[in-house]
Amino acid sequence: MSNFRFKQFEITQNDNAMKVGTDAMVLGSFVNSNGSKKGLDVGSGTGVLSLMIAQNNSDISIDAIELDALSAAEGELNFKNSPWPERLKTHHCDFLEYETEEKYDLIVSNPPYYQTTLVNQDDRKANARHEKSLPMREFILKARRLLSDDGEFWFIVPVEDEQVWKKQCNSANLHMIEKISIHGKVGGDTKRVIFVCCNYKSILEESHFSVRDKSNGYSKEYKELTREFHFNVL
């Protein structure tokens, strides 16, 4: 059995196309859900982002959208086994076909974003990793439509695709209000970028974050960021 244990919940990930990784840990730890009551997790997989947000915010309820049947079933199991099953719900469907009258004040996603790498021969991993399963423009337009007037849309992408995401968000009239550049190592190149977008204009805030220090251990800032989640002290 492939499990990932957190302080307040546990992730079963035997059948998931994508396992819990650093991208999810960093994004889930950074997301600010203060004041949010209704959340949406697009491409929820194991449900890890929803669970991290539910741990941090006792007032939020979250709809989790997952296209892959086995991943959706496992995500729902993780919700049921968590301390907050009444606030988390999995929807096994294509996000672009998801119909709701809801407006969400928080939307999060670790999307299938790869465009510049070869498609994985495993269809389930390809769908989880590559943009073909959720076209970028349609994804952004749908997220904008479901986002409340003062809501925030958080997502993480590879730095190689940063400019095309910015261009598509701009064309959809989604305004970027925060950018967090994620470095694999102190002094190293940016590997990922977290963006926060909304429907209103604001000054863009930019910051940098390193996962590992120069000796290749976890950095102090990573330990501090994730200390409420990691079961073992790093």
Key terms:
alpha/beta; 234 residues; eight-stranded mixed beta sheet; globular; Rossmann fold; 29% strand; two-stranded antiparallel ribbon
Structural class: alpha/beta
CATH class: Alpha Beta
Q: Considering the protein shown, what is the CATH homologous superfamily? A: Vaccinia Virus protein VP39
Number of domains: 1
* CATH architecture field: 3-Layer(aba) Sandwich
Tell me the Rg in angstroms: 17 Å
Could you explain the architecture of this structure?
The chain is globular, with a radius of gyration of 17 Å. The chain is an alpha/beta fold and 234 residues long. 28% of the residues lie in helices and 29% in strands. The protein contains seven helices and ten strands. The chain has a single domain (3-226), classed as 3-Layer(aba) Sandwich (Rossmann fold), CATH 3.40.50.
